[in-house]
Design goal:
The complex is a heterodimer of chains A (460) and B (139). By secondary structure, chain A is α/β, with parallel strands linked by helices. Chain A is built from 15 helices and 16 strands. In chain A, the strands form five sheets. In chain A, strands 8-15-14-13-12-11-10-9 form an eight-stranded parallel beta sheet. A two-stranded antiparallel ribbon of chain A has the order 1-4. With 139 residues, chain B is an alpha/beta fold. Chain B has one domain: Rossmann fold. In chain B, 38% of the residues lie in helices and 17% in strands. In chain B, helix 2 crosses helix 5 and helix 3 crosses helix 4. The chains are: A alpha/beta (460), B alpha/beta (139). Chains A and B meet through strand 1, strand 4 and helix 3 of A and helix 2, strand 2, helix 3 and helix 4 of B.
Chain lengths: 460, 139
């Protein structure tokens, strides 16, 4: 039996206090000096451990309190109040919500799956990835053992072009030479960060983490530095400028190279193949309404990987933007319809915020997913985008110590990996490769709405 | 804005109830003044402790402001009143250690002061006492 892929985790505390939903307002004036003070009786010892972080002026009350409200209810002189923490309210935006950010922090800190003991209190559908549910019908079957022991659930995926069918001559010799391929044990690749403070240390951190979990991190040609050579096996180089100006010795050693889509894309691919025939070449394509036709055209031209990119909110570039899952579904089904889907690898990225988004995007047709902003959040980013505006980063991410950052990203990906196993186990699927395009095992809100309400309208 | 005050390190503590869009509004000033200005929103100005001010001075602030809601408008009824008492206490501590207590300033937002944090900050820095760098920030 092959050795199971496993990501070892260890807690990595935050450099800065985390921001929680509510803040405590505890007034000292008017204290009755009760012999049994509610503050001393706090089961989490929040008041005993009280401290002030002078960098952000954040009181430890705002990061340690678990919102049990015992102190608020029991203080006889009503001196303790709770209020919405202004820093929490300002985390992220409408898409990267404070809830998502705080869950990502938790995973980066502990490496564990975030579980809320009080059940799910939110709505059952929403926009984007929330308009999709996965089939959990196998949740009670022994397939779940794959998560903890007996059966192996594989999350490995292959990146590269594949033959539709093998051809042999009359003597039984193989006529179709194998295409170069790269295997990654988890369907996640680290993408270029849409914004960040200066990236020297951040790139080292991402590459260390990619090496640790045995995947790839996309590094742009501008960000390339000779000190990154030790990570060549885990670099997917994005050639944004003139590829001929780049060091050919490096190109010869790379396993994955990415180029932007454009008129000369086939020419550049051919040129790169001439230098390094074993490298797998990916094409980065902005997601838009023409994506399905472009995907078919490039697949027929012999390309190996198509990497479709939505914006950071998961929207494509259309006039009425479609969400990434819907557009990728369209691309996947178009390739299936034309009989080319199995020949090409589809990568998709943009707006992937949580582990379930990863599974859902694969179900919609991506072979693997590229992740960006969650990696920054693992490094304690507040998604305030101050760095993009030229304002100093409040948590100084540029100065991250790479081994520490690596450990936090490793923890986050371990949490996502375990959640992917949970989803696959509950669906009764033991191969991430089989999860791809399994739309019959998922429900889509729009489809259900149509099925249920359309017949009602037909009466009139 | 007074040129000399532009070079000072300023810490501004303020109640979040003052300006609901404080996070986006304050960015203009943050960009303009860089690391010289730091904003610390509070759930209520009554949450402030003298320790906050001492830490701010210790971290190199030359001027420290605490901005509270108008009198009798505190959402928690007494937050701004208590904030006033704490600032008086902190000013005594600061005096005792040999710093100028006038570097710690309490502002009650009463008309005609604007509630938008960027406009308010400009106004405050405009009229700020010219004090130069504090003893601690010069160390």
């Amino acid at each position: 039996m092959p050795v199971k892929y496993h990501i070892h985790t260890a807690p990595v505390p935050n450099r800065f206090p985390t921001v929680i939903r509510s803040g405590v307002i505890a007034w000292e004036e008017g204290c009755l000096k009760c012999p049994k003070c509610v503050k001393r009786e706090c089961v989490y010892g929040v008041y005993d451990k009280r401290g002030l972080d002078s960098r952000l002026m954040s009181d430890s009350l705002d990061s340690l309190c678990k919102d049990c409200f015992r102190c608020v209810q029991n203080c006889p002189n009503r001196l303790i109040h709770k209020a919405l923490n202004p820093d929490y309210k300002n985390l992220g935006d409408h898409y990267w919500t404070p809830e998502i950010i705080s869950k990502l922090w938790f995973q980066a800190e502990t490496g564990r799956i975030p579980v809320s003991g009080a059940g799910y209190g939110g709505p059952f559908s929403g926009s984007g990835f929330d308009a999709m549910w996965t089939d959990m019908s196998e949740i009670v079957r022994p397939t779940r053992d794959g998560i903890l022991g007996r059966e192996y659930i594989s999350t490995q995926v292959d990146l590269g072009r594949k033959h539709q069918a093998l051809e042999f001559d009359t003597l039984g010799n193989l006529l179709s030479p194998p295409y170069p391929s790269v295997e990654i044990p988890i369907p996640i690749i680290f993408d270029i960060l849409p914004w960040s403070p200066p990236r020297d240390r951040i790139n080292h951190t991402l590459l260390r983490a990619a090496k640790k979990i045995n995947t790839f991190s996309i590094i742009t040609q501008e960000d390339w530095h000779p000190s990154l050579q030790r990570y060549l096996n885990h670099i997917m180089l994005y050639l944004t400028g003139d590829p001929e100006g780049f060091d050919k010795e490096i190109l010869k050693k790379l396993r994955l190279i990415e180029i932007p889509d454009g008129l000369k894309v086939l020419e550049i691919q051919k040129w790169l193949k001439g230098i390094n025939p074993e490298a797998v070449i990916a094409v980065r394509i902005p997601l838009n309404p023409q994506a399905k036709d472009r995907a078919l055209e490039l697949t027929q031209s012999g390309l190996e990987i198509l990497h479709f990119m939505a914006d950071e909110f998961g929207r494509d570039q259309g006039e009425a933007p479609l969400f990434i899952k819907d557009r990728i579904k369209e691309v996947h089904l178009h390739l299936v319809k034309n009989g080319f889907r199995d020949q090409i690898t589809l990568l998709a990225g943009g707006g992937v915020a949580m582990a379930e988004d990863l599974a859902k995007l694969i179900i919609c047709g991506a072979d693997a997913v590229t992740v960006d902003i969650p990696l920054l959040v693992a490094l304690e980013c507040r998604v305030c985008r101050r760095c993009a505006e030229g304002i100093p980063c409040p948590v100084n991410i540029a100065q991250i110590y790479p081994p520490r950052g690596q450990a936090r990203i490793r923890n986050l990906i371990a949490g996502w990996y375990n959640q992917l196993l949970e989803v696959m186990g509950a669906m009764g699927i033991r191969e991430a490769r089989r999860l791809r395009g399994e739309m019959g095992r998922a429900m889509f809100f729009e489809d259900l709405e149509r099925e249920i309400f359309l017949p009602l309208h037909k009466r009139n | 804005m007074n040129k000399e005050n532009l070079e000072l390190n300023v810490a501004i503590f303020f109640c979040q109830q003052l300006d609901p869009d404080q996070d986006s509004n304050r960015r203009v000033i943050e960009k303009e003044l860089g690391p010289g200005i730091k904003f610390f929103p509070l759930p209520c100005s009554g949450r402030i402790e003298p320790l906050h001010f001492l830490h701010a001075f210790e971290s190199g602030a030359d001027l420290v402001y605490l901005i509270t809601c108008p009198v009798k408008s505190c959402r928690y009824q007494q937050g701004n009143v208590r904030a006033g008492k704490r600032i008086a206490f902190a000013q005594n501590l600061i005096r005792e250690i040999g710093l100028d207590p006038e570097r710690l300033i309490l502002i009650n937002i009463d008309p005609p002061l604007p509630k938008r944090i960027d406009l308010l900050t400009r106004e405050l820095l405009e009229g700020a006492p010219v004090k130069g760098h504090s003893l601690l920030s010069r160390l």
